[in-house]
């Protein structure tokens, strides 16, 4: 009993040491670590991050094992490495500082979503796709969700404009300079055009699917994005989600699908969507030829 009392006393003494500034301190550190993780996830700096972790681990180990020369060498590497990292990641650091400057307090820890803008983007996309499908004009659009396509945007032209049917028709017109590649939409706004996407690694895809569809499926395999495609050959509209392709969609079905995927109504809908997604994945596993069936 006395031990318990002493223990409680120690805990209480510690609690008395905690001040409001400690919470602010922890909050700021959590924010910095969060932004660094996001930065690493968005860019291709994962390998560099692994290298840094390895060097730090080696430094700690050399100190533990008293390998003085190795420790000295690694210590100097870390000292100069900090400078090298700042130079190496100058564009990313600049972008992060810009984002911190631009973000509103409420959006700091989450992605700012603009349902009205997304709704508008869906309407305009459906209108454009109906017309592009009729004229058999190829189109490829990526609607980002949690995973960002910053690396793909770097391969094309970065933009910041709202989605309009006329603009999409112009972008995908086969004589327009940006018609090759994908248009990327983030939070209902076009953030890139003429972007190169990762191709699908699925060797069982139907042979009648061209590179546009393979890129669309690839993007959906590598991320949680929703990809809408118009075939240049047939004018057929398709949507890829999680590596699954739904083909031969009518504009109304496209609209319903985009709404379901991009505008989740409430948590119940979310869980339904998750169940449907898992079901589709299970079906995909069961399909022997890997063909992505349409509706
Ligand atoms: N990796 C990629 N990322 C983005 N877009 C791509 C990629 N590869 C190809 N494309 C797009 O696909 C177009 C060429 O594809 P392809 O010639 O196979 O089209 P297609 O025969 O009309 O096929 P589809 O029926 O899939 O439209 C390119 O003009 C380009 O716009």
Automatic annotation (TrEMBL):
Record-linked PROSITE patterns: DAC (PS51794)
Keyword Flavoprotein: no
Enzyme Commission (EC) number: 2.7.7.85
Domain DAC: 90-251
Pfam annotation, one family: CdaA_N
Top-level taxon of the source organism: Bacteria
InterPro entries to which the protein is assigned, alphabetical: C-di-AMP_synthase, CdaA, CdaA_N, DisA, DNA_integrity_DisA_N_sf, DNA_integrity_scan_DisA_N
Keywords linked to the UniProt accession: ATP-binding, Cell membrane, Membrane, Nucleotide-binding, Nucleotidyltransferase, Transferase, Transmembrane, Transmembrane helix
Enzyme class: transferase
Catalytic activity: 2 ATP = 3',3'-c-di-AMP + 2 diphosphate
Gene3D superfamilies: DNA integrity scanning protein, DisA, N-terminal domain
Transmembrane segments: 14-36, 48-65
Key word Membrane present: yes
Family assignment from sequence similarity: Belongs to the adenylate cyclase family. DacA/CdaA subfamily.
Cited NCBIfam families: diadenylate cyclase CdaA
Function: Catalyzes the condensation of 2 ATP molecules into cyclic di-AMP (c-di-AMP), a second messenger used to regulate differing processes in different bacteria.
Quaternary assembly: Probably a homodimer.
Protein name: Diadenylate cyclase
